[in-house]
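Weekly modeling sync, notes
Attendees: S.R. (lead), two postdocs, one rotation student

Agenda item 3: backlog of single-chain predictions. S.R. asked that every request posted to the team notebook include the full sequence so nobody has to chase files. The rotation student volunteered to paste the first one in as an example of the format we agreed on. Action items at the bottom.

Example entry:
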Amino acid sequence: MTLGAASANPYLSFGPDSDPVAWASLALAAAALVLAAMGLYSVIAYTVVQRKHEIGIRMALGASATEVFKHVLREGILLTIFGEAAGLTSAVVATRFLSGLLFGVTPTDPLTFVSITVILAAVALVACYIPARRATSVDPCLALRNE
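Predicted structure, as returned to the notebook:
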């Protein structure tokens, strides 16, 4: 494929010489992804801190670190599933109003919807991993002593 053929396709011509609006859109999308990851991380981390006593009791009663890890991770994944379902529903509804602004893609492009869903799920999994690992290090004696 030559450079001239690549510039005919708007998807393959994204580079330093492409439209500044495309770069601005990319920067805003990256910022939104980082903010979503930070928000999910902070919610899960706050939940772990608030439930430190409960996690300590669970571990004192015999719950393994793996069970606690899975429990915290499951909560984050459930938040992600509900958030993605609401986002996908809103996006499908918004396509009716935004279809005139799209160029080179159909309003309900399945590749776009699937790829964004997978990327957000992967980022959410990473954002939930750190608080889940932190929850496994709760010392049951310290958690019970503080109450």
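Discussion: group reviewed the output briefly. The radius of gyration is 21 Å.
Action items: rotation student to repeat for the remaining queue; S.R. to check formatting next week.
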